[in-house]
Amino acid sequence: MLPYGRQSVDDDDIAAVTAALRGDFLTTGPTVGAFEAALTAHLGGTGCVAVTSGTAALHTAYAAVGVRPGDEVITTPITFAATAATAALHGATIVFADVEDGTANLDAAAVDAAVTTRTRAITAVDYAGHPAEYEALTKVARRADATLIGDAAHSIGSVYRGVPVGALADVTTLSFFPTKNLTTGEGGAVAATDPAVLGRARRFANQGMVRDREHLRAPDEGGWHQEVHSFGLNYRLPDVLCALGLSQLRRLGQFKTARARLVARYNEMLAGVPGLGLPVQRAWTDPMWHLYPVRIADGRRREVYDRMRAAGIGVQVNYLPVHLHPVFADLGYRRGMCPAAERFYDEQLSLPLFTDLTDADQERAVEALRAVLG
């Protein structure tokens, strides 16, 4: 089966991990700081803290900006459930705003209409790697006195109006799952433009622990002393995984070039195929494409999915709109709340896209899709 996504691991990655394994630290050592510093450089200078997953990054981000019971978080339904679930775990009410028909990213006008006095955060998702409309969303967030969070699980390496993802929102979360643009195996990160927010994120991801003497309430207790001032969790990303991430970051530009070439080839080979819609790219963006999402017209998506999988092509659907998951349906969310998102889901299909996808395998996927669509 040709997968829809797969990691790219080379000898340098393996050597980096091996060196970490032979070092003095498997976790909470110097490689963590080196990885965070390298990430900061890639994110336009925005400071960051590495965590254990993209989900952990979201959970940490909501904690750092103070999301609590009674708050509302506005977000998109076209995302993995964690974008909303981690805010709900802090007690927030999730408000789903609809998406743009073209990019399937959060619609700023829909967000503006959903703002209330209880809005604490607005969380955009860079679906498939295409940046959301941060300029418009920032204006809405400022009017609402809300924090703008960018869920950039798909989009490290992407650029919006000349600004890299990571420097666009107040807080940005990243994922380094194996199918993403780069991997640490499992892992993620939180980036924040405000040092105070970043400090709270770092503390939450380290079980709320305080060790700096100037912040201790009992600074003279002894050299061993540490305190918990607020509840947190153990979301620390270990050295051995940061070593892999640090090595992968050195190839991020190569990964982006490879993905861009494959997307251009898909666009050329699939142009004009009846019943098929291709991904939309805004002129002011330079995406690092994580997915290649097409739209299957005439209610044929399930048929195309089944026949492509039977032909050995690992297509995927990304994603069931979050408000349609049973956990949200049980809370009263219903189909019809976000019609553009629901139409997108009914038609969406991701074709294989990963750095090491060969031209021959890509052509096989295209030929199979053309044959199914007739």
Automatic annotation (TrEMBL):
Classification via Gene3D superfamilies: Aspartate Aminotransferase, domain 1, Type I PLP-dependent aspartate aminotransferase-like (Major domain)
Keywords: Aminotransferase, Pyridoxal phosphate, Transferase
Top-rank EC class of the record's enzyme: transferase
Residue positions where N6-(pyridoxal phosphate)lysine is found in the record: 180
Family annotation (InterPro entries): DegT/StrS_aminotransferase (IPR000653), PyrdxlP-dep_Trfase (IPR015424), PyrdxlP-dep_Trfase_major (IPR015421), PyrdxlP-dep_Trfase_small (IPR015422)
Keyword match Transferase: yes
An individual GO BP term: polysaccharide biosynthetic process
GO MF annotation: an example: pyridoxal phosphate binding
Keyword Membrane attributed: no
List of catalytic residues: 180 (proton acceptor)
EC assignment: 2.6.1.102
CDD domains, per the entry: AHBA_syn
PANTHER family xrefs: DTDP-4-AMINO-4,6-DIDEOXYGALACTOSE TRANSAMINASE, TRANSAMINASE
Similarity comment text for this entry: Belongs to the DegT/DnrJ/EryC1 family.
Official protein name in the record: Perosamine synthetase
Source organism of the structure: Catenuloplanes indicus
